[in-house]
Task: inverse folding
């Protein structure tokens, strides 16, 4: 069982930056791929970025490439999402998730953190 707690959301102007963090419980954090997802009002949840257990492979959704960076610290059981050059369309609730595969079947989810980007 893995418990995930996100933090770092907030209100920021367009062009600004935020760094989201996700703290995981448990002693097997490095076994899990970690992902960030987001859900905007009235829209389905969508994938944002993922990183493998060792932290040496990651990929992002096309719309955030060059702006968002996912990273992890296995010693601290945390995963981060650095978000730069934020746009109003990035406004959403952001969730972190853990699973055995980067591309599917995420088993554990956090409660989410709100990111609001004003124009």
Result:
């Amino acid at each position: 069982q893995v418990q995930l707690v996100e933090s770092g959301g907030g209100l920021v102007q367009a062009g600004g930056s935020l760094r989201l963090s996700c703290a995981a419980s448990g002693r097997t954090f490095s076994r899990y791929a970690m992902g960030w997802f987001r859900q905007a009002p009235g829209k389905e949840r969508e994938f944002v970025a993922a990183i493998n257990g060792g932290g040496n492979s990651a990929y992002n959704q096309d719309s955030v490439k060059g702006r968002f960076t996912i990273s992890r610290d296995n010693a601290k059981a945390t995963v981060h999402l650095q978000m730069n050059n934020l746009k109003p369309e990035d406004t959403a609730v952001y969730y972190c998730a853990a699973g055995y595969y980067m591309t599917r079947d995420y088993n554990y989810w956090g409660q989410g953190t709100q990111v609001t980007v004003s124009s």
